[in-house]
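Worked example 2:
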Amino acid sequence: MAEKSWPENMTENMVESPILFDRLLWRRRRTRAAASSLPNFLLERVAGELADRLTVVLRQFDLAVDLGTPGDAVRSALGHLENVGTVIGTDVFPRARPFVVADEEALPFRDSAIDLVVSALTLQFVNDLPGVLLQIRRALKPDGLFVAALIGGDTLAELRQSFAAAESEIEGGISPRVAPFIDLREAGGLLQRAGLALPVADLERITVRYASVFDLLSDLRRMGATNLLVARRRTALRRTTLMRMMENYAQRFADPDGRLRATFDIVWLSGWAPHPMQQKPLKPGSAKARLADALGAREIPAGEKAGR
């Protein structure tokens, strides 16, 4: 399982991909967060949803890989499923067995070796997501399944806007503080680009209410998800900027009871390694019935204007 087979264009893709995230810092913060044993509500919720999604899949997955998910929430959730066998975890730091020491951007699995690859709240911090998805597709057996949850969409839009307004007012400029997250349409395109069949991308929006901004920042630290951008400002945050950001947040995003809203968008991705027996989409023009007939309506030829 330790053999490596690189796609012809993989090295080129990895070189050209912009380096947005400080991966070493991500590993340190994730390890520190895992060692704290403090609850991670978002990860627990995603792990439960992931297990629910796999419950309705009528297929047996004898060998599964949990790719880079912090902690054991996903492995624990999958351990209760009858259609999932051995679950191997991966991380740069070994934890409970069975375990493979690996980085998400350089998978050590041979081609067509794994039945199921899952990942929760990790892949949003890789620098070459198209390359990672391509490696996952190659590691899956024919008709193997990939399911992942990424932080994306408008996640932490409230925090981003509050910081931007405060820094613009007090410091005369804006520094990168909240990561650029993937949107739903882009995510679906990446699945197709990786060669995964029957790709599906959907979004789950979670709105969390906090008593203060400090409580939100505390949750982000528990997730190991505070600022990881390579372009982040390396000087300490000014107290006046922080206080102004908190005022902006309270003015713009507080509910009538004073609690503050924070948005977490979870982008769900799934796709199958191609297999000859899988369903195929119909070719354009191959339909045997017309939509107009089914609706009992008159079809208007192109260029003809509809009557009043």
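Residues 1-15 have pLDDT under 50 and may be disordered. The domain at 10-276 is CATH 3.40.50.150 (Rossmann fold).
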